[in-house]
Design goal:
The chain has eight helices and six strands. It is 43% helix and 15% strand. The C terminus is likely disordered.
Length: 225
């Protein structure tokens, strides 16, 4: 039986995210997970959450591709994928994606680091082999997807660019952003930013060469250029 659209929340538990992104606490990720769930539930769309407990694969590309494939295997024609680290993600982004998928082959919510915070894709255009070859966790990801889509003559719709929480610098950008953000998350981020601000400034120059080797949201670069 064919079904229309499902949302895939591809996000680890708060404890695992804090372990892999040690510049933030599990408390912050716990609130982010809660907000993401509420945002999705308000859309009225069926959803599935894939955390580290049910992700399958040895690389990010494998885990992500397998999760998308699993949703399509449930009979859905479209999948909208999101993570838990985009504080400015709102229900209207999901609803807009649902509408855009009616007339476009692909919907992309570009993140400012060259990846994406949301992808809406039709089953007809999901090629697992191609997905596995994408430059995941690099700043080339977004351009690569656009290039492949152009070659295949796919129609892409873009949402507004948003920032993911992938570094201490991202905290600064989000705290000083004029975009609406939940008070609970803003309070935690502001407190963290104020407490860590001195150390952040001292470490800023060396940050870009630091061996950050594990970012686990969609498309986040391993190393910032």
């Amino acid at each position: 039986m064919k079904k229309n659209t499902a949302i895939l929340i591809f996000a680890n538990s708060a404890e695992k995210d804090a372990e892999r992104k040690p510049f933030l606490s599990s408390d912050i990720f716990s609130v982010l997970n809660s907000q993401t769930l509420k945002t999705v539930e308000r859309s009225g769309t069926e959803y599935f959450h894939f955390s580290e407990k049910n992700q399958i694969g040895s690389s990010f590309g494998e885990r992500f591709s397998n999760a998308i494939e699993a949703i399509f295997n449930k009979g859905f024609e479209n999948v909208i994928t999101i993570g838990n680290d985009t504080p400015h993600l709102k229900t209207h982004h999901l609803l807009d994606t649902l509408q855009q998928l009616k007339k476009n082959d692909l919907v992309l919510g570009p993140s400012k680091d060259g990846g994406f915070y949301l992808m809406g894709i039709k089953k007809a255009h999901f090629n697992k082999e191609t997905f596995l070859k994408l430059p995941w966790q690099t700043h080339h990801l977004q351009k690569c997807i656009i290039s492949i889509s152009s070659t295949k003559k796919l129609q892409i719709s873009f949402l507004e660019p948003l920032s993911d929480l992938d570094s201490k610098e991202d905290i600064q950008h989000i705290v000083h952003s004029f975009k609406a953000i939940s008070k609970s998350i803003l309070k935690l981020l502001v407190a963290f930013y104020i407490i860590d601000k001195k150390g952040f400034i001292n470490q800023k120059i060396g940050f870009y060469s630091a061996p950050f080797s594990q970012y686990f949201n969609k498309g986040s670069p391993l190393i910032f250029a």
